[in-house]
């Protein structure tokens, strides 16, 4: 143990993976680097990012002993201490690994018999004395499990790799999908290149079309025997943990004398960051799907060091499955998943981007910063964070839904939106000398359901007109995104009700009150609010319009820029002379128009920070027969699957990325799932969060900026499953040396029994019985003449 502790102290925090196994010798446990054939592993991953975030995983094989499991937990705690307590710790159980863990092994994990995962062990190369059958599952993160080498192991829905050392034969179940087939081919290639030094052949058989691959079927039959009866039906995929259960509870635990532990419930979702105290440790229970432990910086050493064991004990006490996911983290080193479960999260010393946001009618006040579009081109990530594709100088077209059809809006009224209407706004700009499109769908909260439905239908028609190029953005009234504000150049006015249709007289409300927010034309809008004193806010500018007067009210907390924008918007709303009213100096007529004095938001200025949350990517697919959302950890552009719809959650906005091969059901279902995702989010997300639809090949910088090193030409260079399969070649067309490999396989797979007596005698020039009586050297000589040696 002392030797291991010394080794732990020498571990360096270097980017990449480091892997150890637990070795048990005479009831003593040792940590060994890079060994194989063990059942518990410790994996240290240090990211290549500037922050070098660090994660420690300990992996428990199904056949591991209690001694190995206990030792792994102890070593993880010690390793965490040696690295300063900042890493996030994960407990991984074979077959139920987290998406983050699987993301380290892009080509997949292979479970050897006995529970050993060869996907992350040292592999001996150029070893050909192998005969195994791998059951392959997964489309995003692939796992392969060794099963009995028999037809009884097969089913109609999955993919199986028959690994014979010098050849790997892939059998695709008739009900398997294209993405699964592609992933299995990549895994077969990885086995060939990593384990066989590139000296192995790969063949593919399409289940249900075996007659098209007679040579490969001969090999399979020689190994597995003749297939009798029907294959089993597909095994349903386990429904992935979507981490979206709203049943989230926070517990505090602390130690007392005599080793007693007290666990008490603190709160249920939605959770807020101020519930966490630096002097304590907490358990966050996500409805039994995962358990997370948060260690305060000032908590006792005993509480911090026992965090992992407390989580396991909590799982047992709750009667949760033994494979329940566990994460342990220290204050300041929280995982993205943990922070996503809180309604707001602020990092120490958090710095805002180019601007800050606020909400209508709330006391929260922010300082606005002039937007510099040049920074977007230099920093794609900044473009994504600010949700600005350009400087809003492109071309704007606006239509209103009238009688369920599109009616072009007079450009002189651009920027005026009525709560009783639905509008489509098409924005056109150029990037790399190519036109790009954004189609905003603005839906008034008082519009009829028929009009809302018609706006969606007409959006599809417009999208088709431009060959699917527009990025579609659903805009909820009052939740207009920053770019939407910018394209109307300070002329955006939101009327609570009514309609902008020509010839329609809206009801006369008598007096109307508008709240004006913004410091320049790129971020200003006026929103109609209830005409009463309680709507006022000391930090803003308000316009009160009556039949007799127009008052421009300046709160004590508003800036000079905000007052100037207030004047500009007031001129759009009314040509009458405006009476400037300073807060605290209001005339009687002002209060009369508001129905009398009343308390309003007049506390000291508060700043509302934008919650800092890392983006999350989900795969939305029904390729398994059921619609599922599966999270992709540490995502890159490579994770965008052309056969599926992907959901990117940036907290301030939801993107739905539509792959070129995604089916209609996935596309339709993904939108409703995005809405449900917001409604059921344990952090109590705003259901009005913008949902933007992006099609493959038409990604705006507000989307691509969330991906490191985005390659705009990637889609033209990738290989499909069909192309990958064709590159493997046909068994009947392979070279002489390749045929030799397959002949050797047939010979080593009871070739003598497979041939008829006549075929055997024709090949070797003697009967089967006479061949068996020959000395070994003579048998080998005959094999050479037959081309088998």
UniProtKB/TrEMBL annotation:
<dbReference type="GO" id="GO:0005546">
    <property type="term" value="F:phosphatidylinositol-4,5-bisphosphate binding"/>
</dbReference>
<protein>
    <submittedName>
        <fullName>Villin-like</fullName>
    </submittedName>
</protein>
<keyword id="KW-0106">Calcium</keyword>
<dbReference type="Pfam" id="PF00626">
    <property type="entry name" value="Gelsolin"/>
</dbReference>
<comment type="similarity">
    <text>Belongs to the villin/gelsolin family.</text>
</comment>
<dbReference type="InterPro" id="IPR007123">
    <property type="entry name" value="Gelsolin-like_dom"/>
</dbReference>
<dbReference type="GO" id="GO:0051015">
    <property type="term" value="F:actin filament binding"/>
</dbReference>
<dbReference type="GO" id="GO:0015629">
    <property type="term" value="C:actin cytoskeleton"/>
</dbReference>
<dbReference type="InterPro" id="IPR007122">
    <property type="entry name" value="Villin/Gelsolin"/>
</dbReference>
<dbReference type="InterPro" id="IPR036886">
    <property type="entry name" value="Villin_headpiece_dom_sf"/>
</dbReference>
<keyword id="KW-0677">Repeat</keyword>
<keyword id="KW-0206">Cytoskeleton</keyword>
<dbReference type="InterPro" id="IPR036180">
    <property type="entry name" value="Gelsolin-like_dom_sf"/>
</dbReference>
<feature type="domain" description="HP">
    <location>
        <begin position="723"/>
        <end position="789"/>
    </location>
</feature>
<dbReference type="InterPro" id="IPR003128">
    <property type="entry name" value="Villin_headpiece"/>
</dbReference>
<keyword id="KW-0963">Cytoplasm</keyword>
<dbReference type="Pfam" id="PF02209">
    <property type="entry name" value="VHP"/>
</dbReference>
<dbReference type="GO" id="GO:0005737">
    <property type="term" value="C:cytoplasm"/>
</dbReference>
<keyword id="KW-0117">Actin capping</keyword>
<dbReference type="InterPro" id="IPR029006">
    <property type="entry name" value="ADF-H/Gelsolin-like_dom_sf"/>
</dbReference>
<dbReference type="GO" id="GO:0008154">
    <property type="term" value="P:actin polymerization or depolymerization"/>
</dbReference>
<dbReference type="GO" id="GO:0051016">
    <property type="term" value="P:barbed-end actin filament capping"/>
</dbReference>
<dbReference type="GO" id="GO:0051014">
    <property type="term" value="P:actin filament severing"/>
</dbReference>
<keyword id="KW-0009">Actin-binding</keyword>
């Amino acid at each position: 143990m002392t030797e291991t502790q010394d080794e732990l102290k020498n571990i360096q925090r270097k980017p990449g993976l480091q892997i150890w196994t637990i070795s048990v010798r005479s009831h003593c446990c040792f940590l060994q680097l890079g060994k194989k054939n063990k059942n518990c592993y410790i994996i240290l991953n240090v990211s290549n990012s500037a922050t070098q975030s660090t994660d420690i995983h300990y992996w428990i094989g199904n056949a591991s002993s209690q001694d190995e499991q206990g030792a792994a937990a102890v070593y993880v705690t010690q390793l965490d201490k040696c690295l300063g307590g900042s890493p996030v710790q994960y407990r991984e159980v074979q077959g139920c690994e987290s998406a983050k863990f699987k993301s380290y092994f892009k080509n997949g994990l292979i479970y050897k018999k006995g529970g050993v995962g060869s996907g992350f062990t040292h592999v001996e190369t150029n070893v050909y004395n192998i005969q195994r059958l791998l059951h392959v599952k997964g489309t995003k993160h692939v796992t392969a499990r060794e099963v009995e080498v028999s037809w009884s192991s097969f089913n109609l829905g999955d993919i199986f790799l028959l690994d014979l050392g010098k050849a790997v034969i892939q059998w695709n179940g008739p009900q398997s999908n294209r993405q699964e087939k592609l992933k299995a081919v990549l895994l077969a290639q990885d086995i060939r290149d990593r384990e066989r030094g590139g000296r192995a052949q790969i063949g593919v058989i399409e289940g249900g079309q075996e007659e098209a691959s007679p040579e490969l079927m001969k090999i399979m039959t020689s190994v597995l025997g003749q297939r009798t009866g029907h294959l089993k039906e597909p095994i349903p995929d386990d429904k992935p943990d979507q981490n979206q259960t709203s049943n989230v509870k926070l517990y505090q635990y602390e130690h007392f004398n005599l080793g007693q532990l007290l666990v008490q419930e603190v709160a249920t979702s939605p959770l807020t960051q101020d519930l966490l105290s630096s002097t304590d440790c907490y358990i966050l229970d996500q409805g039994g799907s995962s358990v997370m432990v948060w260690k305060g910086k000032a908590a006792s050493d005993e509480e911090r060091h026992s965090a992992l064991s407390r989580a396991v004990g909590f799982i047992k006490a709750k009667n949760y499955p033994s494979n329940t996911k566990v994460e342990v983290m220290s204050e300041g080193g929280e995982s993205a998943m943990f922070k996503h479960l809180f309604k707001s999260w602020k990092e120490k010393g958090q710095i805002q981007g180019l601007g800050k946001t606020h909400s209508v009618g709330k006391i929260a006040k922010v300082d606005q910063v002039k937007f510099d579009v040049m920074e977007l081109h230099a920093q794609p990530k900044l473009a994504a964070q600010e949700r600005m594709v350009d400087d809003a100088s492109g071309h704007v077209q606006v239509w209103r839904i009238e009688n369920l059809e599109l009616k072009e809006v007079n450009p002189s009224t651009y920027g005026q939106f009525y709560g009783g209407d639905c509008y489509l706004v098409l924005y056109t700009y150029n990037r790399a000398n190519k036109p790009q499109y954004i189609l905003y769908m603005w839906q008034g909260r008082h519009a009829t359901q028929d009009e809302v439905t018609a706006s969606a239908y007409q959006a599809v028609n417009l999208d088709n007109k431009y060959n699917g190029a527009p990025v579609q953005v659903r805009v909820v009234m009052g939740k207009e995104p920053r770019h939407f504000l910018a394209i109307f150049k300070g002329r955006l006015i939101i009327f609570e009700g009514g309609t902008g249709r020509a010839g329609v007289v809206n009801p006369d409300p008598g007096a109307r009150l508008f709240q004006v927010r913004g410091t320049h034309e790129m971020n200003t809008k006026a929103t109609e609010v209830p005409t009463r004193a309680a709507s006022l806010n000391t930090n803003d500018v308000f316009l009160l319009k009556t039949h007799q007067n127009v008052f421009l009210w300046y709160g004590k907390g508003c800036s000079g820029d905000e007052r100037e924008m207030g004047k500009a918007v007031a001129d759009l709303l009314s040509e009458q002379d405006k009476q400037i009213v300073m807060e605290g100096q209001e005339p009687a007529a002002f209060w009369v128009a508001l129905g009398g004095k009343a308390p309003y938001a007049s506390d000291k200025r508060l700043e509302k920070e934008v919650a800092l949350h890392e983006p999350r990517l989900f795969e939305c697919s029904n390729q398994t027969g059921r619609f599922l959302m599966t999270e992709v950890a540490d995502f890159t552009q490579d994770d965008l699957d052309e056969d599926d719809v992907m959901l990117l959650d940036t907290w301030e906005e939801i993107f739905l990325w539509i792959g070129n091969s995604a089916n209609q059901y996935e596309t339709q279902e993904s939108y409703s799932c995005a809405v449900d995702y917001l409604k059921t989010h344990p952090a109590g997300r705003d259901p009005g969060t913008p949902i933007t639809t992006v099609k493959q090949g038409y990604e705006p910088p507000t989307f691509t900026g969330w991906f490191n090193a985005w390659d705009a030409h990637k889609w033209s260079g990738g290989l499909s499953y069909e192309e990958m399969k064709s590159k493997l070649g046909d068994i009947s067309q392979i070279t002489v040396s390749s045929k030799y490999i397959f002949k050797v396989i047939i010979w080593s797979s009871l070739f003598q029994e497979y041939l008829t007596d006549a075929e055997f005698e024709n090949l070797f020039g003697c009967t089967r019985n006479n061949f068996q009586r020959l000395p070994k050297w003579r048998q080998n000589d005959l094999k050479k003449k037959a081309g088998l040696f």
